[in-house]
Write a structure and sequence with these properties.
EC 3.1.22.1; signal; 7 helices; single chain; globular; DNase_II; hydrolase
């Protein structure tokens, strides 16, 4: 016999099980599903043999294992970047007190460029469970939360890279310490009071305060939500050195091939003065046989010259004289999928003897 009490319990249980579960904040892939990490390489408009749209991009994560040309355009409301950022925009996370978000860019949208800040660009969004860190090279991006996802027209000309990593909450306490060294320009952010005790660095940066640093640079190991190991290298403006040559190559004990946007007359030449060398990449060749020169590529990345080292880093700084005096960083990985994807892009680089190699 079914009593009224039993019937009510059954109805309540049915209603409870039908309620949708709140999804954890995460990097999202091309289909909108959670992933541990992904990399996007936006193609430049001007290539060696053609002029493109400036909004095509390649996508990479652990499941696809090699570069895939996206069926979406980067300025559309679909695709991995839009899916990931829409957790902030469409999810209205920027209006809630249950999560932290930060948008930073030395060249923010609609605001005047100020060189005093670190040469760094990115997004953080996380709650007490987990979230994502998106590090990228795109000026004037992303848009303010209330405007929704908008890709800037200025971002069509040059190549750009984006690295998204999913982390559990404890890792963001370490990331916050790294951001102090970068001294990024926070142009939109929210650190609710409930998080400020754990994240005093973020709260102060969000308020516009400049931190006092214990040293001029810092290295921090990070572990993604699925156990992928990354290393964050960050330097302040007080470490007056090319981050690739003077620090990262020596710590990683690897000769590096570096792709960065170098303006003529301000670029740093390939350098073999220290035990480990850094050499400038001059031409990129995609798996689709599309080729382009490095001065149309605003991305910043490097790979180990030796295949056995399998080092890949993505980040903020160009190999230019002026950027010795800027804060910025690199996020490095030993993941073989990431390494193989980037290493195969190197068509031509300049050795320290000023001869080309492939």
């Amino acid at each position: 016999m079914v009593t009224r009490f039993t019937l009510c319990c059954q109805i309540a249980l049915l209603l409870f099980t039908c309620l949708p579960c709140a999804a954890d904040i995460s990097c999202l892939n091309e289909e909108g599903n959670p992933v541990d990490w992904f990399v996007i390489y936006k193609l430049p408009k001007y290539k060696l043999d053609e002029v493109g749209s400036g909004v095509e991009y390649m996508y990479l994560d652990e499941s696809v294992a090699r570069w895939q040309m996206s069926k979406y355009m980067i300025n559309s409301s679909q695709g991995a970047i839009a899916n990931t950022l829409n957790q902030l925009y469409m999810g209205k996370a920027y209006m809630a007190n249950s999560s932290v978000y930060v948008l930073y860019n030395d060249g923010p949208p609609d605001l005047k460029y100020i060189q005093a800040y670190g040469h760094t660009k990115g997004v953080l969004l996380f709650d007490r469970a987990q979230g994502f860190w998106l590090s990228h090279s795109i000026p004037h991006f992303p848009s303010f939360p209330e405007r929704g996802y908008i890709y800037p027209s200025s971002g069509k000309l040059n190549g750009q890279t984006m690295l998204c990593m999913t982390y559990q909450y404890a890792q963001f306490l370490k990331i916050a310490q790294q951001l102090e060294y970068l001294y990024p320009r926070f142009y939109n952010c929210s650190v609710p009071t409930a998080f400020s005790a754990d994240l005093p660095q973020l709260a102060k940066l969000c308020e516009g305060s400049k931190p006092a640093l214990a040293s001029d640079k810092n290295m921090q190991p990070l572990v993604s939500s699925q156990g992928e190991k990354f290393t964050s290298f960050v330097k302040s403006k007080h470490f007056v050195e090319d981050i690739y040559t003077g620090w990262v190559a020596q710590v990683l004990d690897a000769d590096l091939l570096v792709e960065s946007w170098q303006t003529q007359g301000h670029d740093l030449p390939s350098n073999c003065s220290l035990p480990r060398h850094t050499m400038n990449i001059k031409r990129i060749r995609l798996p689709t046989s599309v080729r382009f020169r490095s001065y149309f590529d605003h991305s910043k990345w490097c790979v180990s010259q030796a295949y056995e080292d399998q080092v890949t880093c993505l980040g903020d700084l160009n190999r230019e004289w002026a950027q010795k005096w800027r804060g910025g960083g690199l996020i490095c990985s030993y993941n073989p999928v990431i390494y193989k994807a980037f290493r195969q892009l190197v068509e031509w680089y300049i050795s320290c003897r000023m001869t080309g190699h492939d």
